[in-house]
Amino acid sequence: MDTLGQLAMSKCQFDVALIPFKADEPDPRGAEDIEFLIATNPGASPGPLNKVASGGELSRISLALQVVATDTTISPTMIFDEVDVGIGGGVAEIVGDLLATLGARSQVLVVTHQAQVAAKGKQHLLITKDGEDEVRSALSYINDDDRVQEIGRMIGGAKLTDSTLAHAREMLEGI
Description:
By secondary structure, the chain is of the alpha+beta class. The chain has helices spanning 2-6, 49-52, 55-69, 89-103, 115-118, 144-156, 162-173, and strands at 13-20, 32-39, 47-48, 77-81, 107-111, 124-130, 136-142. Helix 3 crosses helix 4 and helix 6 (144-156) crosses helix 7 (162-173).
């Protein structure tokens, strides 16, 4: 799949195996079971997707499948967690672009730690945790200057500089 190549998985091999059910036992699912096989490294033999791929790879494969199927199916809501694990820079920007493409047709919720991905979203929710003995999570909607500050924090860490904030603004403006 070309889409996997865009997601820094150009060397992987993705196959679909049709495994026949026992001929003497009719099955309401049909005559075969389907198994996705993948080899994520050159020269490796394809194995079951759920055993070979890491969490980040599974998320990117799921994203690629959703993008490829977007013209024929519509899911009302899609959730991606850790879709940006093990990637950075340009690939993270491509992931953000592909998620934005899906977001034009469906509601897409993404948990991300990459500024390049977060900047592509139409809305930005911030999750924070607080507490020592009992941890509580809070969810807040941020926009405008708060969003620039958060993207800046994702880029540069705790200390925000004028350069970091300018870069955050550029990312949010799509420059």
